[in-house]
Design brief:
The structure holds three protein chains of three kinds.
Chain A lengths: L4 E6 L5 H7 L3 H9 L1 E5 L12 E5 L8 H10 L2 E5 L1 H4 L12 H9 L22 E3 L6 H12 L11 H7 L24 H4 L16 H10 L4 H10 L9
Parallel strand pairs in A: 1-2, 1-3, 3-4, 4-5
Chain B lengths: L1 E6 H14 L1 E11 L2 E8 L25 E8 L5 E4 L6 E6 L1 H15 L5 H8 L1 E6 L24 E5 L3 E6 L2 H10 L7 H17 L12 H6 L6 H6 L7 H5 L6 E7 L5 E8 L20 H20 L9 H5 L7 H12 L1
Parallel strand pairs in B: 2-6, 6-7, 7-8
Antiparallel strand pairs in B: 1-9, 2-3, 4-5, 4-11, 8-9, 10-11
Chain C lengths: L7 H32 L11 H8 L1 H22 L8 E2 L2 E2 L5 H30 L2 H8 L8 E6 L11 E5 L5 E5 L4 H4 E4 L8 E4 L16 E2 L2 H7 L6 H14 L9 H20 L19 E8 L2 E9 L5 E7 L1 H4 L1 H15 L8 H12 L18 E6 L5 E7 L1
Parallel strand pairs in C: 3-8
Antiparallel strand pairs in C: 1-2, 3-4, 4-5, 6-7, 9-10, 10-11, 12-13
Helix pairs in contact in C: 1-2, 1-3, 1-4, 1-9, 2-3, 3-4, 4-9, 7-9, 8-9, 11-12
Classes of the chains: A alpha/beta, B alpha/beta, C alpha+beta.
Chain lengths: 246, 349, 408
């Protein structure tokens, strides 16, 4: 059997997800051994626009990114979005809620007009996506799980229940009970509630579950003292692209 | 009934001796919440780590009987298909289990041994010794007194009751009796002390009457059958986050999901199971994509029917022991069985 | 910005976490990105000039050690902070959890192993690079020199520090021209923009932007390993100091050779390992009082550490409710943006001669000027398939394209 041909691409991101893949250490050699890695970034012209699986990291923040993504979609049999920027837009979306001209002026001063930008969006807002591996950055074990499923020709199963399940299994004290607030009740589990385990709260980087009860979450956040503005900020930190965060 | 006495200063010695020979798990303090001290089950490595005056632990001791994630099989696909079962069990003592949680363990023992006996559960259960303790405090949402769970007549190896200067210890099994003989300094019990145990218990039982069903618990099956179309399900479920917290913290929720994991070389792997919860939106979703309980209301209602009707017919008892954990940890506060059952009763009157 | 000074133990824990980070980051760069050029040679076939080729040449057990020590350093990070990337363990006023005595003892053992591995790496550098005159000549050759200012964080004793201290800048002759605290960074650094890059070009404000040129008149400065060693007067741990002395004796000071970054990086790997061990042997590090709760509304703050790839500035300003209103970051690689561009140009101009056939080796030697900085985008330069998208266009003096080469 021929090995699947795999390519990696990135758009606006920190490349933290690809770093997670490099950080697989012992498993990295096995992962690389199971496939032919044919492309990294733009290294595809006239050489390797022949690949089966494209892993795409990052969000789309310029109109001029779109043709490149369309090309990747055209070439790939399976397109996998990896990491919060690619799957839900991630923190790049924060600029969408500000004036794009003043945002650019803040960064580039009077030369701001030289820099193209448009509201940031996840990959699925531009092309159909076959698979999404969530989290910021992606979880190495989950990547390997999905990767193995792809090797077997299966669709991997991702949790469709909130972080609360992982959090209870980890035997944490609920952060709401400690005077803090949390996006866990509407956020897709699979991270082992790592941020709560480490003494923080869930920020929502894995995106919403399929049918989040956002109204109830808003009521809960209000009950625990957040103002309407603060609630909106919570919903917009990672998940600002979702309809329910509008 | 065999009853012994351990003076309070000697309890530490008993524990110290047990720790030498056994893995001892018990109730520990873990962090303050805005409601006060939180309690969890964990390893006891020194006597002063154990806490016996807790009101209710955040999680029940079910993780010792059914781990949140458990390996069931190892399999090889190539070159030759092979399957080997994995049954892991290690002997341990759980120190400090309240009667309502013991009642839940008794129910699980029955469920996992009847019909299709579960070898993993049974093997693990065999190695566990349970040392119960009567509560001295009642958590704000508990209603175990209403659920016939204030005391149990079996299921424990030893049962402790704090009567002030000392603990009275009821011996539940021979194994428990042997533990006492070998590791504890005990004395015999006077008639007055025996009476004191009765008084202490009725006092604490009375403290758990603040929250109660307004009707006999045995009426639950008929009440639920007559309430299938109650508007209450929709009303409550509209706020349900499907977060499965109620399932996770419940001592009688034992449902699990099974999946296979294959190693990167695709030649061998393992089969696992993990706790699942019926409030999760995909709980009743099947391979072809259909979901038998698609709405929040359907899932929400299911849980109460399960506790008060379906399992009632199997156990001849409600599969809710009144610990109140689901009520305490439900963020939108819709999971309280006392509120649900009483309102249903109110509606059919 | 929170007006809360974390407890001493917290600073130690953070530095310990950070030292572990340096260990795996520097190991990755040296073995996966730098070593292929030296172990296999700059003009080796790109198909083998990668980490797998290095493992092939130096032996599988060493490859195993590389992976093992990267793993160890990450384990230490996970033990301290729950995870190694995007951690949420650091909090205003401290950290969310401390370490136990048991964990401390484990970290100590792991740190010892890292020190041993650093010794081995220094020895390897010695054997493969320094004992080969051609390589030393290459490092010191003109196409790879750039005489710029240098920046790095130093402690009270003027030694290299990654976690805390003052930012020191020396001129191309090695003379100190600035030493400032993080909050004074805007008095010292300004950023130039060019339409062809989203990344800006920081320069020394007091010297000024004179374009992509080196020398004392130009505000272009460099950060990262060689720059840090130029800015400071030595290393704070014994074995790293020993290695530093050899480095200075061999190359002089300040070191203008871009490729010397590889050597400096291995010296820093030693320092990070030794510092990790020092902190792990400090019994007070298990103190459970790891946080003071900030009670004032946050206002404004600037934090600076030395990232493996250069000085890292974080600047935050809040509104009256304490919510972040403005943020400005200058990250490691950004410091080196102008010098990277200049180094590539200089290497290309120095290596490409009229009428010469451009070989793969020459392409790679141009790439080496870029790779020495360990830029964040360097992952792409030695990706496992051994390819980097590189496009070389040679113009004549009239701006006409003479030759175009593209390696896919």
């Amino acid at each position: 059997m021929d090995k699947p041909r795999v390519a990696f691409f990135d758009f606006a991101s920190c490349e933290g997800d690809q770093l997670q893949i490099v950080n697989l250490e012992e498993d990295l050699l096995k992962v690389v051994g199971a496939v032919d890695v044919v492309s990294f970034r733009e290294a595809m012209k006239g050489h390797s626009d022949n690949y089966d699986i494209a892993f795409v990291e990052g969000s789309i923040t310029r109109r001029s990114d779109e043709p490149r993504l369309l090309e990747i979609r055209k070439n790939a049999k399976i397109l996998v979005a990896i990491g919060a920027c690619a799957t839900i837009g991630g923190v790049n979306l924060l600029k969408n809620f500000q004036d794009l001209e003043s945002v650019r002026k803040f960064v580039y001063g009077d030369k701001f007009f030289q820099y193209e930008t448009y509201p940031a969006r996840p990959i699925k807002a531009v092309v159909p996506v076959d698979l999404e591996i969530h989290q910021c950055p992606i979880n190495r074990d989950e990547f390997v799980m999905a990767f193995k499923a792809l090797l077997m020709g299966k669709k991997p199963e991702f949790p469709n229940y909130p972080v609360c399940e992982d959090c209870k299994k980890a035997e944490n004290i609920c952060v709401f009970e400690m005077g803090m607030t949390c996006m866990g009740p509407v956020t897709r589990a699979g991270c082992g509630a790592c941020c709560v385990v480490e003494g923080s709260v869930c920020w929502g980087c894995r995106g919403f579950i399929d049918h989040p009860n956002a109204d109830s979450e808003r009521e809960v956040l209000a009950k625990y003292g957040l103002s309407v503005g603060d609630i909106l900020k919570k919903f917009r930190l990672y998940t600002g692209f979702s309809e329910v965060s509008k | 009934m065999e009853l012994k006495k351990i003076d309070k200063p000697d309890l530490g010695l008993f524990l110290q001796n047990l720790i030498k020979d056994f893995q001892v798990e018990g109730v520990k303090r873990k962090g303050q919440s805005v409601y006060g001290q939180s309690f969890f089950y964990g390893s006891i490595n020194a006597p002063d780590e154990l806490c016996l005056d807790f009101d209710c632990t955040t999680m029940p001791p079910k993780k010792y009987f059914i781990p949140p994630k458990e390996e069931l099989l190892k399999f090889t696909i190539a070159p030759k298909p092979e399957v080997a079962e994995v049954i892991e069990s290690k002997p341990l003592i759980i120190f400090g289990v309240h009667p309502y949680d013991l009642k839940a363990v008794n129910q699980m023992d029955k469920i996992f041994s009847e019909g299709n006996p579960d070898p993993n559960y049974l093997k693990r259960r065999e190695g566990i010794l349970l040392i119960g303790v009567d509560p001295t405090k009642v958590s704000p949402r508990s209603f175990w007194n209403s659920m016939e769970a204030a005391s149990v007549s079996s299921g424990f190896d030893l049962m402790l009751t704090d009567i002030g200067e000392s603990y009275l210890v009821e011996v539940g099994t021979d194994k428990g009796g042997n533990l006492l003989k070998k590791y504890a300094k005990v004395s015999s019990v006077t008639k007055e002390e025996e009476q004191k145990r009765i008084d202490v218990r009725s006092k604490i039982w009375n403290m758990c009457k603040k929250r109660a069903l307004n009707f006999p618990m045995r009426e639950l099956p008929s009440l639920l059958v007559n309430s299938l179309n109650s508007p209450l399900w929709d009303e409550k479920a509209s706020k349900c986050l499907s977060c499965v917290t109620c399932n996770m913290v419940c001592p009688t929720c034992y449902c699990f999901d099974v999946w296979d994991d294959v190693e990167l070389d695709l030649t061998h792997g393992q089969r696992y199971r993990r706790w699942d919860g019926c409030l999760a939106s995909d709980f009743a979703k099947v391979a072809t994509g259909e979901n038998f309980r698609e709405t929040r209301a359907a899932r929400y209602r299911h849980r109460f029917l399960r506790k008060g009707q379906y399992l009632f017919s199997k156990l001849n008892d409600a599969a809710c022991v009144g610990c109140g954990r689901c009520a305490a940890y439900c963020l939108p506060d819709i999971a309280d069985p006392v509120d649900v059952f009483n309102r249903l009763k109110e509606a059919v009157k | 910005m929170y007006h809360a000074d974390p407890p001493e133990v917290t600073k130690k824990l953070r530095e310990m976490f950070y030292s572990a980070h340096y260990v795996h980051s520097h190991i990755a760069h040296f073995y996966a990105l730098a070593a292929p050029d030296f172990v296999l040679g700059p003009d080796a076939d790109p198909a083998v000039r990668n980490i797998l080729g290095v493992v092939d040449k130096v032996g599988l057990p060493i490859g195993g050690e590389v992976i093992k020590h990267r793993g160890i350093a990450q384990d230490i990070q996970v033990m301290i902070a729950g995870r190694s990337t995007h951690l949420v363990w650091t909090l205003p006023g401290g950290v969310s959890k401390g370490i136990t005595e048991e964990e401390r003892a484990q970290i100590e053992e792991k740190a010892k192993s890292c020190v041993e591995f650093s010794k081995f790496t220094l020895q390897l550098f010695d054997d493969v690079v320094l004992k080969n005159k051609a390589y030393v000549d290459l490092i010191l050759s003109e196409p790879y020199q750039l005489k710029t200012y240098y920046m790095g964080l130093v402690d009270q004793n003027d030694k290299v520090n990654f976690y805390d201290g003052k930012i020191k800048v020396v001129d191309p002759e090695g003379k100190e021209v600035a030493k400032y605290t993080p909050s004074e960074y805007l008095d010292n650094i300004a950023e130039h923009v060019e339409p062809w890059s989203y990344l800006k070009f920081p320069y020394l404000k007091k010297v000024g932007w004179k374009g992509f040129v080196d020398g004392k008149e130009s505000g272009v400065y460099r950060a990262a390993p060689a720059a840090r060693l130029n800015a400071a007067s030595g290393m704070a741990t014994p074995l790293a100091q020993e290695a530093y002395e050899k480095y200075i004796t061999t190359l002089g000071k300040p070191v203008h050779a871009t490729l010397a970054n590889h050597w400096a990086r291995v010296i820093e790997l030693m320092y990070a390992s030794e510092r990790l061990l020092e902190l792990a042997q400090d019994k007070s590090i298990t103190d459970p009082n790891v946080r003071i709760l900030p009670t004032e509304t946050p206002t404004e703050g600037v934090g600076v550490v030395e990232a493996p790839r250069g000085t890292l500035y974080h600047h935050y300003k809040t509104d009256k409710n304490g919510f972040v209103e403005k943020a400005n970051l200058i990250v490691g690689t950004t410091n080196n943006h102008a010098p990277i561009s200049m180094s590539i140009k200089k290497a290309a101009m120095g290596l490409i001669k009229k009428g010469q056939v451009i070989s793969n080796g020459i392409l790679n030697m141009i790439e080496m000027a870029f790779r020495a900085y360990d830029p964040c985008f360097s992952c792409a330069t030695h990706s496992l398939p051994g390819q980097m998208p590189l496009k070389l266009t040679i113009y004549d003096i009239h701006g006409k394209v003479v030759e175009q080469l593209e390696r896919a």
